[in-house]
Every structure is written in C-alpha cells, then in structure tokens.
Design a protein that fits this description.
The structure holds two protein chains of two kinds. Chain A has helices at residues 4-15, 21-28, 32-44, 82-88, 115-126, and strands at 65-73, 94-99, 106-112, 132-139, 145-146, 149-150. Chain A is of the alpha+beta class. Chain A folds into two domains: 4-44, Arc Repressor Mutant, subunit A, CATH 1.10.10; 57-142, Lrp/AsnC effector binding domain/regulation of amino acid metabolism (RAM) domain (Alpha-Beta Plaits). In chain A, a hairpin with a 6-residue loop joins strand 2 (94-99) and strand 3. Chain A is extended. Chain B has two domains: 2-42 and 284-382, Aspartate Aminotransferase, domain 1; 44-281, 3-Layer(aba) Sandwich (Aspartate Aminotransferase, domain 2). The radius of gyration of chain B is 21 Å and the shape is globular. By secondary structure, chain B is α/β, with parallel strands linked by helices. The termini of chain B are far apart. In chain B, strand 3 (115-120), helix 6 (126-132) and strand 4 form a beta-alpha-beta unit. A seven-stranded mixed beta sheet of chain B has the order 2-8-7-6-5-3-4, sandwiched between helices. A three-stranded antiparallel beta sheet of chain B has the order 9-12-11, covered by helices on one side. A two-stranded parallel ribbon of chain B has the order 1-10. The chains are: A alpha+beta, B alpha/beta.
Amino acid sequence: MLSTEDRQLLNLLSQDCRISTEQLSVQTGLSVEYINKRVKQWEENKAIVQYHAHVNWEKTGESQVAALIEVKVLPQRGFGFDKIAKRLIKYPQIKTVFLMSGGYDLALIIEGKSMQEVALFVAEKLATLEHIQSTATHFVLRRYKQDGTELMGMEETPERLVISP
Amino acid sequence: MNKYLTPFVREMPPSGIRKFFDLVSTMKDVISLGVGEPDFVTPWTIRETGIFSLEQGQTMYTSNAGLLQLRQELSRYLSNAYGLDYNPNEEILITVGASEAVDLVMRAILSPRDVALIPDPSYVAYGPCAALAGAKVRYVPTRAEEDFRLRVKDLENAYTPEAKLLVLSYPNNPTGAIMTREDLLPIAKFVEEHDLLVLSDEIYSDLTYKGTHTAFAGLPGMRNRTLHLSGFSKAYAMTGWRVGYVAGHQDLIYGMTKIHQYTILCAPITAQYAALDALTSASQSKSEMVNIYNQRRRLMVKGFRDMGLSCFEPLGAFYVFPSISATRLSSEVFCRELLREENVAVVPGSVFGPSGEGHIRCSYAYSTEQIKNALERISHFVQRRLN
C-alpha cells in the first residue's frame, strides 16, 4: 500500500517530471534524502518507467497519424496471447498494446507519418502475422484529451477578480 | 443624491479591500496573490449536474429552507465529518453563500444595544453586518506570537455585559490560523459562563492541513449555543454559485428563515442541485484540491521565511499572513509600494482589523508557477527594504 506522502510524490512527478528534488521537498515536506532514495527505488523497480514530454503534435506543424487497431488473435496453447504480444511490441510503429476483454483481443495504437503509411503497415506487417485472424483499423481524427490532459479547451481560463475578500 | 441615503449607510466606510481593488484595477499585468477564492474551476461532475438540472427544467423556487434532499445530505455530512446532529427538517437553512447566513444571524440575534465580539483580524463582513443590525462591535485582538488563536484573556478584556454574540471563524481568513479542540474548550467555557451565542463560520473547515477540524458546535454544551455556518465556495471551488448554509437550534433557524423568506425567498435552485452533487460525488476532487493547496502552502511559507520575514505556519484556509515589520513599513504602504515597484498585488493586513497591521495577506489559490514568480518579485522588494 502506497503511503499518502509517496502518492503525492508520484503525482507531482507524473504532472511535471522536470520538478527539482528541492522543490518536491518544499511542497511535500519530505526530506531531499528520502525523496532521492525513494525515486531511485522506483526507477530501479520500474514503478517509474520513463520520464517524457507529452507532445501535442497538432501544434508542431508536423503531420502525424494515429490509428486504433482491433486485432482478433488465435491464442496459442501454453502461451495464450503473450507470444504474439511479445512480437508486436517490438515494432516501433506500435505505440500501445493492450489485451482486451470483449469483442476482440488486442488493441493497438499505431502511429505513422500518413494514413497510407499506417494502412500499409497494418496490411503488410500486421495482418499477415501468423495467428492473427483479423484486424479493424480506426483512424484518430482528433485528440480532445490524452493521458489526463485536455488538449482542447486549454485556452479557457476564466477571469477572477484581482483582489477579493 | 447622497442625501437620500440613510445617515448610517452614508457614514459606513467601504471595505478596505475595495479601495485596494480600485488601485490594482488601474494597473496592467499585475501578478496577484490577492484573491480570496479558489483558482480551480468547479469540478466537472458538479457543473454537469447543474447543467442537467437546467435541462430538466428545474428552474422554480425551492422551499424557503432549501431542497430537502440537500438538507438531508448536509445533515449526513455534518454527522459523518464532525459528529454534529441536525434535523434536516428544522435545523438547517440553505442560504445564498455563507455571506447571507452571516447577515441572517446578525439580524436575527442582535438588537441595537447588543454587542458582538469579533476576533481581530478577521473577514471583513462580520463587523459591518453586526453594525447594520444596529449592534455595537468589540474586536478581540489575536497575535502572531500565539499563532493568531483566540485567547480567553483577550475575550475577558473585551467582554461587556451587553455582549450577546461571539463570532468564531477558524480556519481563519486572513491569517490561516486554526483552533484545535484544546484551544476551543476554554472558549466554550467562557461562552457558557457569559451566556453567549456563537456564530461559527467554518467555511474553510475542509481546508485544514494538520489534524482534523473541530466543529465548535460539537463541543460539550455548545450545540444549542452555536450557529454553524459553512458553504460550498471554498472546498468545492463554487464561489460564483452562491450557496451556503446555517445549522443550529430549531428556534434560531426558524427565526432566520422568516427573514430569509421575505428577503431572499430561496437560494438559486441550480446551485442547490450542484451543491447536492458536491456532497455526494465530489469528495475525491475535494481531497485532490486540498492536497494541492497544502503543497503550495509549504512553498509560500518557505518563500517568505527565506526572504527573512517571520511567517507563522498557517494550518488552514489558503492564506499566509507573514509579518512585514522587518521592513519598517506599514502594511498599506508595503502593499502600495510593492504594487508600484514589482507589480505584485497582496492585501494589507490592516484591512482585516487593527491587529492585522504589520502583516500582509497572500493567497496561495494560484498555480505553483505564479506563486514562485510572485515570491521572487516580493523577495526583490523586501531585500531592497531590508538593506
């Protein structure tokens, strides 16, 4: 069970991974030594997987296309879905791989420079893999919110009075 | 047209905050730590409930006391959170913000010869509302050395046989002070001995950063002597919705409901539905906001102490109240010059009463970035004054 203080640390880091240890210490009231030790442990046991910037590519002028792919798979005896999943995660184009409940088995998110590039990847690399029964490709048209961050409507900053009692 | 105003209103001084607000409004690109409301927008679940109630055509009056469902939920909340026991049918009145409740208590309880005892410094409305009810006011000083807690010795000094009502407001605006159960017990004894009623404004009770908040009405013998005031503005970031409440003995609530029915009729129905949702579905959002305030609070206190100013540790609300006496400036001059030289707006402690002199009120209802930026500028200003 995570302590309240540790949860606070992880929340602060997940909101802004560039925050300094000193700043974390001031805001949480925990010592710098404790924070350094704890963060190192999390990095080692992969509780903290990675530090990265959340880029809204639409704003960069760089074209980028993403698609959600529903994949139906024939599970393999002794391996279930793990064996095929391990193959899929090696492709750099595939950003996300989830095993799902419901009407299909794996959900993938694939990114590429163009719809054609993504479609070609699905048709040539993905659909042809052994044990994959079928794929259905859904292109992302617009991102409104991702990983807890609103990408649209961020411009809404309601005005407060400058001074109030 | 001034001659048409009553002499009382004509003579009534405007809030010191208003004066300062007018000054700040003339300036551009001001970084402000002067705001007494959350920087969060009301959590979406609450807003959505308000919208849904409108879609359903819920646009009528409610009963004078407010939606029964809301009063029932409040009764449950007060019982679970603070061990208070109020009958939702007769002992809870929904008001237009806690502000209306302050006015109602003063008008229902105070007659022209009565005296209200009010801690100093405190929120700007208590004194004027008591005065509007025709009563006299005696301010009871609190001090930084005592963490701005109200002490019985000061109450005894301020006491007069005409005293009828004591105002308590902890966690406190502007100081951020809290009063623990141990701090409040002697006050309760004093109240009992002098047969006083208490207006306990606990609007910041959810914003307590150490230990748990003690509701004054929950102390032995205090239930029937206390009017427990609170609202949704601070903890749920709902200032603009204007919804609060007062809970107390049925006779007192009945009296206040009579004034409320003639002057207000009822609190806005949309806000009441939203408040109901706040109680039933927004406790997670509330605790997330409280966590964030607490982080900013530590940042602010450290910031002021690093500048070389003494700053007692505020454990409630969202204000710090550092002493600026090291700069040898009065709080009003400090704020004016800080505004002129560094474009930062904070509120002079003196607008909250004479004991606030020598202090400034800084709100941490701002993003960490804004706070850091403001602290840096205040630090430049202070260093120039200290050297």
